[in-house]
Every structure is written in structure tokens, then in C-alpha cells.
User: What shape does this take?
Amino acid sequence: MAISDLRQSRIPVGPLRLTRIVSLRHGIIASLVQLALVEKNLMTDTPRRRLADHVSSSPTFIGAGSALTGDLQCGGDLVVAGSVHGDSTVRGSFTLSEGGRWEGRISAANAVVAGEVEGTLNVADKLEIRATARLRGALSARSIAVARGAVIEGEMAVTSGAAVVHYEEKRKPG
Assistant: This one.
């Protein structure tokens, strides 16, 4: 349906906004015309996005097949696909990829876990636990979302007092 078709239809259409879309994963920069549908709340002004979509353009990587033993201070985002034995403070987002393993304490602003964690995970804001995740230890975050299939053995605390969100993963890996 074209924009002119919406204007001629009976659906009330609010102002048009031009939004720039940047996809670091695919190297795509595009413009999108976004319609604000005002009746029946058909479109919200603040779309919900997954935490994984918000990794900075220059994160620190520990690649698959790599192993690190020791403590790590990270001023930005950290993405781990290998194995780490130690403690870390991450000022940005922490991402543990499927196949990645962490043994120790992690403190981060936000986190997405798809691998294995044995230890303590303290997250200041949002924690997303994917279906492939295996966590053993203590978890705390302001908000926690757990995918069906994830395994959590230990304590889990939501610091905001909100309920844990359970979801079904819809995106396919790869």
C-alpha cells in the first residue's frame, strides 16, 4: 500500500517522519518513511528493539577459538564467542554468543547471553537470555527476558520488581 493510498483510505494517518536506518551487520544505510497511525494505537512512537541490535560500531571481541584467563575492564561493548575465565566490568553491552563460555563475575550495563555462564552476572539495565543459554550462578538485572529453552540454575533477581518476561525466539540464527 502506497502512502497516497493510506491518505485516501479511511485509516487516519498522522504526520510523516523520515527515519534513517543504519544496519552495521549488512552495511546498509537507507531511509524509511514512517507513518504515525493515530487511531487504535496501530503504531507506537518508540518501537521495541532487541538488545543485540544495539551493539556499538567498535566493540571489543574475543573470537571463537580464543581463550582468555584474567580480569578484563572494558570501557565500551564486549562480544565474546570464545572462552573466558575471569572477572569483568563492561561499561557498555556484554554479548556472549552461542558457543561462548564465561567462568567468573560479569558486571555490565546491558547483556545478551546465548552461551554458557558459570558465576555471577550483574546487569544495571536489561538482560536478555537466549534459548541456547546455559547459566549457573546468580543473576540480577533491572529487567530480564528469558527465551523458551534457556537453562538457568541458581538465583535470579529483578531489581525493578517487575516480572521476568518469557518469550519465544522467532529469528533464526545465521
Summary: The CA atoms of residues 90 and 141 lie 14 Å apart. The chain has two domains: 3-47, 53-167.
